[in-house]
């Protein structure tokens, strides 16, 4: 039976470690005594007294810690892994870390003949026991082949993102930035729709039928309708992930207009909510900024006023123009399409292939209907026809005008409106079909959107 060591038994790490129970001789360790105790009664699990002791007993070791700096401290610290590591050992890093810092650690360990791969995880903790995790892996061929049978004990969904250590983490940064932007952008538009008088239940059903559909409309909005939570992810960790996305964008030289706004909103949440706030608590921040609430408690208290707002909004659109629901859907689709381009540019300039980006994102939490259409086409080098760009800008103008009248910030959709106005104003008026692809390519000075 294979012997595996696992370090980092937090909400996600503990579930990942449990995937080895019964399939491997498992050794575990965590800095938290409480986390260690949770494994002490598990049959066949050895709870090490230190990271060094775990390394003395295992040649295949997986770590899942909050930050790359924590990984460095855990390896090279006073009682760290390096004390017990033997030559030829394999280290697998599942931390949502910084690619450059991870590569530096790998380079230092390589001098001691220690193999290293990163295998970032996309999954909610409750999905891991079901084998529902997606792993994004980076590393040299030999190390990857050695790690693959170990990782398959966690999940069959494993994507090789590149040959450099850190490539898996870079892919997760792309995914998480897309998820965060689609999430907060969708919430802003949903709150505007609610302030205009559309019940959340009706809006959630409508948005899940068409081009606006994404992870947030699919899971979060229906959960809010039922008064349930859709994620237990810590707000501080999502802020860390988006900070990493901005840092990566700066490092490779790509503009990150919308991601910058998303980071700002998350920072507002981190500064104003309790220290242990969850990502779900950002609903309260978006509600507060718009001066309304998503749930039924507000509908019952202010139903007449909300319906009056709806009438005003519909009248402003005019006879024969798109309905309010159509405008809200168009706004969400536009912001999802923009963030797909924005994050794809960052990934490309970092060195990820478009095919890898397409394969991973569209099976992970960053997906949207827009990404599922756009990314495969870009990966195949198929020209993208922006046949509705003028109409999309028109819809964004109308929904942003509505946000002015109703007093909602709508920061993300407004940013997309400005960017797309710029794209339209600088386009060849005789050929509008490839406008956005050309515009984003030129804006980022990225390599071609192809394999």
UniProtKB/TrEMBL annotation:
Segments traversing the membrane: none
- Name this polypeptide is given: 3-hydroxyisobutyrate dehydrogenase
The source's domain of life comes to: Bacteria
- Any idea which GO molecular function terms this record carries? 3-hydroxyisobutyrate dehydrogenase activity; NAD binding; NADP binding
Which part of the chain is the 3-hydroxyisobutyrate dehydrogenase-like NAD-binding domain? 166-285, 330-432
Recorded hits in PANTHER family, A to Z, give: 3-HYDROXYISOBUTYRATE DEHYDROGENASE, MITOCHONDRIAL (PTHR22981:SF7), 3-HYDROXYISOBUTYRATE DEHYDROGENASE-RELATED (PTHR22981)
> Organism source for this protein?
Paraburkholderia atlantica
Residues annotated as domain 6-phosphogluconate dehydrogenase NADP-binding: 3-161
Q: Does the keyword NAD apply?
A: yes
> Its Enzyme Commission number?
1.1.1.31
Gene3D superfamilies under this entry? N-(1-d-carboxylethyl)-l-norvaline Dehydrogenase, domain 2 (1.10.1040.10), NAD(P)-binding Rossmann-like Domain (3.40.50.720)
**Classification via InterPro entries:** 6-PGluconate_DH-like_C_sf, 6PGD_dom2, 6PGDH_NADP-bd, HIBADH-like_NADP-bd, NAD(P)-bd_dom_sf
Keywords assigned by UniProt, alphabetized: NAD, Oxidoreductase
